[in-house]
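Re: your question from the hallway

Yes, I did run it. Sequences:
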Amino acid sequence: MTWMLEFHNVCFAYPGNEGIAALRDLTLRIPAGCRCALLGRNGSGKSTLLLHANGILRPQRGAVWFNGAPVQYDRRSLTALRRQVGLVFQDPEQQIVANTVAEDVSYGLFNLGFTEQEVVEQVQKTLKRFGLISLADRPVHRLSLGQKKWVALAGVMAMEPSLLLLDEPTAFLDRPHVHLLLKELAAIHRQGTTVLMATHDLDVAFAWADWIVVLHEGRVAVEGEPERLASQPEVLQELGLGAPVDYWLRRIWRARAPSEVEAGSGQEDLAIVQWLMNLAVTP
Amino acid sequence: MLIRKLDSFAYLNRLAHWSPAWKAGLALVALAGCLAGDAPVQTAIGLWMGIWTVGYAGIPFKIYGRLLVMPAAFLAAGAPAFLLHVSAAPLPPGPAGDSLAGWTFFGWQWSVSLKGLEAYGQAVLRAAAAATCLYFLLLTCPVTDLSALLRRLGVPAVLTDLIGWTYRFVFVLLDVSERRYTAMTARGGFPGGWRSLRDAGLLGAHLLQDMIRQQDRVALGLASRNDTGEFRVLARSFRRPERRLVAEAIAGMFVVALWVFWRRIGL
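Structure:
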């Protein structure tokens, strides 16, 4: 198996919080080509781990490896790393730096040294892919939160990273937007991008990932395939994540009543509820 | 909020897709005409800019009128300084003394002079005409386009970036302050009087903290996308302006120049 991202005994504490380490001797390997969910409660170290993966934070002890080589922290190496590793922040306001949608999508491309013609082509391609053509010249402060999240994702995907990191991408999104986002992430993954998503939403993680890592107090508490982790509900419960009810419910429903309804869609939700209602009234 | 409305108009008006160079050129020539010309020139320019802003760009007259009231309020506040003359000894009435009316209060002679009235009229006309030129630019040209234009004109990147950042942060802070204001109001904040003043101070202090926090977070966002120190983004593309309007703009600029020249030199 090829490892895309590796953390070897990484320790990190934020300045001023030296007594409370955000990452404690963390060792973790993310295989290339996987859809990995990073689960954990607030303060478990998920965002800190992502900032290390993008080279924004540097381990105080231990090392981060990318594509089989340790990450170097000189400017040129970091530029090369960030070309490969895209990070989408939880709050799009943190990430959207330009004034219009097209400008923001172009920002990272200029930083990578693309020529103006290449930037124009790549921006058009990206806007088209994310359905943002009609919003290209719209000032970002006139967008809804859902649209801003989409622009933030487009701005990173325009750089065509091989590893996409997402920090709580479903936070503050309504259900249809979550479904749309997960569909897009699946498409991104199909095109060969490894995706690592930090979330505290158990249902999202189990519905989408093919590998789940659970962080607890800056360490990996447990990791594995969704099915294996879902079989240990007491462990998840103990880690404060709750039990994977949604996962088992959908699994049973899909096994008993296979249908043409798209997995994870609103129609599937409705069909499950109707099935449960029938069960409830049947003596 | 007015600032959001103005920004919307700048992006959505009928001239929004014109090159900012065109609009800035027209506004600047008109502004120069206001500064160099006399009252008839200034009146004509003010009306012409109004036609461009309301008629051609499609800015609602109500908004335009509200905007014009703002400088009018400043000018009204400055009126006493222009109009009133205070002296210990009474001024003789009529042309020699240049006094239109006079009153005595507390042993001082207060009078309105013809010269003062003329000067005030000139200042009002000039300021109002200049305001119409600047409003034309403000209401038809997004700040992003103006900043790109300045960059093309050779203004240092650090200044144009600063304009862009300030513009972006204004709206981020506006959002934050609105959210905080709503949250405070929901808990009985801003009840009026001194407590409202105290709440406003609290809101301001939090905004400062929010601004610093937001700045730190944006710095991380920039670093994650390979910030090089130079803020370079794709410039907007513009449509070719309508021929009739271009012809009118050019003809108007010539007329302004000739008129100013004629009034000044007396040709």
